[in-house]
Amino acid sequence: MGALIEEALSGEMSDWDRAVLERARETGQISHADYLEGVGLYEDCMAAAGIPLVRTDHPNGLVELQPGAVPAGDDGDEQLLRTNHECMSETYGTTQDLYGFQRGNPDLLRDSAEVVVRCLADAGVIDDQFDRDDFQARVLDDFSPERLPFDIMDAQVQSCLYGAGMSFLVVE
C-alpha cells in the first residue's frame, strides 16, 4: 500500500486528498475516519449541485454512493458525469480509489474474480469447493444466480463484489 500512496502523492489531487495521503504515508494506510470524512465531503458537494445520492454502507467498510436520480433535461447524464468528476476532484477522489484497494483488494490482485472469491471465503460465505473458475463461469460468463451457492443480493456478497469493482442487481 505504501508504494501506491507514494505514487499517488506525485500526482495532482485536492488539498484534502493530499493531507490524508501525507498522514497515510506515515502509517502505511488510510484511516477509516479520513475515508468517511471524504465520503461526507463528496456527498455535500453532490447535494450542493442538486444531485441526491443513495448510500450503501458495506460490511467491509466501503461506502457505495449512487445517484438517486439523473438531473432533468436533455443534458442530465452529461451534467451528472461532470458534477461527479468535479466533486471527486475537489474532495476525496484519490483517497476513495486507494481506500477501495486497501479494504476491497488488500493483496492488490489483478484478477477481480479471485478478489471476490477470496473475500467470500474469508467471510465464510463459500467453502473451498467454490473457486475462481466457478465464479467466472456462473457469474461473469453466464450469470446464473440460481446456480450459485450464495445469494448474490446478500449484503456480505455485495460488499465483496463492490470491493472488487463489481456491481450486480437482481430484480425479481
Short description:
The model has no long low-confidence stretch (mean pLDDT 93). Helices cover 55% and strands 6% of the residues.
Please explain how this structure is put together.
With 172 residues, this protein is mainly alpha-helical. It folds into 2 domains: 2-104, no CATH class; 112-163. The chain has 8 helices and 2 strands. It has a two-stranded antiparallel sheet. Helix 5 (93-104) crosses helix 8 and helix 6 packs across helix 7.
Question: Helices, strands, pairings?
Answer:
Layout: H1 2-9, H2 15-27, H3 32-48, E1 53-57, E2 63-67, H4 76-90, H5 93-104, H6 112-122, H7 132-141, H8 155-163
Helix pairs in contact: 1-2, 3-4, 3-5, 5-8, 6-7, 6-8
Structural class by SSE content: mainly alpha
Biggest sheet overview = 2 strands, antiparallel
Can you count the helices?
A: 8
Radius of gyration: 18 Å
Distance between the termini: 40 Å
Shape: globular
- The total number of structural domains is 2
Number of strands: 2
Question: Can you give the mean pLDDT?
Answer: 93
Label this structure with key terms.
about 5% strand; mainly alpha; globular; about 170 residues
